[in-house]
Write a structure and sequence with these properties.
InterPro entries: AB_hydrolase_fold, GCE-like_dom. It comes from Mucilaginibacter boryungensis. The chain is α/β, with parallel strands linked by helices. The protein has one domain: Rossmann fold (3-Layer(aba) Sandwich). Helix content is 25%, strand content 19%. A hairpin with a 7-residue loop joins strand 4 and strand 5. The longest helix has 21 residues. The radius of gyration is 20 Å and the shape is globular. The N terminus is likely disordered.
Length: 437
Amino acid sequence: MKRHYIKSILAVGVLACASVSAFSQTAPAKPLATVVAGIPVNYDEAKVGNYTLPDVLTMQNGKKVTDKQTWLSKRRPEIVKLFEENQFGTMPGKPTDIHFDVFDKGTPVFNGDAIRKQVTVYFTADTTYKMDLLMYLPKTNKPAPLVLMISFAPNSSLSVDDPGVKQGTMWDKNGKKLPAPKIGLGKLSKADIERFTSNGYGIATVYYGDIEPDFKTGYKQGIIGHYMKPGEQVPGDHEWGAISAWSWGLSRAMDYLETDKQVDAKRVALQGVSRLGKTVLWTGGHDTRFKMVIASCSGEGGAALSRRNYGENLAHMSDTSRYYYQFAPQWHKYAKDFNLSPVDAHMLVSLMAPRPLLLQTGDTDFWSDPHGEFLSAVAAQPAYQLFGLQGPGNAEWPKAGDTSLAYNPLGYYMHQGGHGTVPSDWDIYLAYVKKFL
């Protein structure tokens, strides 16, 4: 989690912005904070501690996975269940009352070079729980592959300069929904969209706050609360946190995309930043309908190894004033000694095998431990090797801007800068999509 998220924009007390590229470009040369939430922060490689990672190919019964079929039918489901029970919590399935309102069926935009579609996905029979899906599709007679982004900003607050986008709502600091201002909170631009649509790929986005509010009592107003048991006051130890709720919402977006004849639903990629990088990792791991994941600066609880004490650690996240609500309560029981946890980030990364996964980080994003994400990819690659696919191999940790590992099926890329995305990352994303999607 990034310390510098904007907690209030104008009169709207939003928790975070859609991209933190402004921070990326002004990130300090060296880490500054040594204590967060009263807990020391380690930035010294010599003090990361000793740890032994669980082997991704060794099943709980001690047997070793040696073929891809055993991975797909036994070990992979076993790891998914471990993450459900110990980190993200269990999610409900597809709701029986889900339905869709395609209120913008295809409007030419950007001088007629692309098509805009807008859909409201209703999670329940009534209109209480819903999210808006915004899509920009290339002009083509064939179903288009698509990159689905989950954003910190409502669709209408992106920097797209499209007045036809339905105005969204945002959560304020008091837990109320207010109309979203059109002040370019998000960093997705018209140029970014056209970069993909001109190459035959669609871009879609949903606002994470439509699914579940991003604050500690958000479960009272979001989809988690709808599914809580009668009389239950707070989610139980193994029940879902906000990240699983956002992930669940992305799967509901896929439920719609499978009905849209203009979209190739078998070629849908996910992209998210920071806590939403964690979200897309978990979504891709849990829901195999997604073909690809691009996870940006997902850090602790995402792609960075938790057993490695560097930057943010579970103890920081487990402070109840911070990000406790984003995970299953069970996960925080490992805060004092994460070696007791049966899972770690490399196992989350491995769940994508054999589907393409790109981990994108920043060389000054010390808080999110970019080296820990690289080491996670190294430890996860045996799952990819079962399919004859390449990960980092025996390569050394690449320097910022080095693309030598970026275009592997299990890819890693580190830009020069801090947390989030910088403009040049979009070129990497497009090249990755063109190669694998």
